[in-house]
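Following up on my earlier thread - several people asked me to post the actual chain instead of describing it. Fair enough. Here it is, all 276 residues.
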Amino acid sequence: MVDFGVFYIATGKEFVAEAEISAQSIRDTMPDIPIAIATDAEPDFNFDHVISIDEPEYSFTDQITNLCRSPFDRTLHLDTDIYVDNNVEDTFDILEQFDIAVAHNHNRSAYDPPGVPDCFPEYNTGVVAYNNNEKISNFTESWSSIYRELYNGGNPQNQPSFRKALYESDLRIGTLPPEYNLMLRYPGHAIGEIKMFHGRLLDIDTPGAGKYTDVEEAASKINSTTDHRVFTQLGGISIYSNKESHPINRIRMSIWRHGFINSFYRGVSKINKQFK
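Reply from S.P.:
Thanks for posting it. Predicted structure:
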């Protein structure tokens, strides 16, 4: 096996086309990182490794059953709708201390799998860093079994079963900050540079998330500052950082920090500098 690399699992030509856009974002930011894909189609992108899926189910099962087919010891698995905007090689470093590393799901699950306490979070499976070894192989077998059990019980999503399988496992779980898996279809908060954006790169008919915004445009706007900022997704992206807060809020913050008199003189000083 190769030491580390990025791994996609894409069944169906549309998802392969989307994976190619995602892979290009990796090549643009980390040109030396090897990239592999497991697929049932012939990709146009020059992946370093192409692994054939002979009997795809065209469902979340394809991700679960093919996760350990990665050609890399330390693997960063990405959904096809992940846009990489900054270097994320440190996701391989975290695997020196943890078996698997994932970010919390931005949306709370509508379904709580039995036997899992509320305080144990649901993780998002769009970005998964893991050591490709026997422990992970055993974990995916458990995940697959729980997924089919919940699926037959009326829950077709893969993350509730992932949550339960993690909870019942002995894996050391590293939690990635949201900047490593920022989902654009929900309002959110960011600090520093966002590494990976999670949003549909192509308009694909899928039981998963739809395409809500232009991810590259949103990434450019959100990463236009590294300050604390919040964003909304309502037909577009709006950024409100604390540097752009309302003047009244800045006055209130100044009084809280410096007192009324000092804040008054600080304000006068700033006004005088503007007219010099």
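Helices lie at 13-29, 61-66, 90-93, 134-152, 159-168, 215-222, 247-258, 260-274. That should answer part of your original question.
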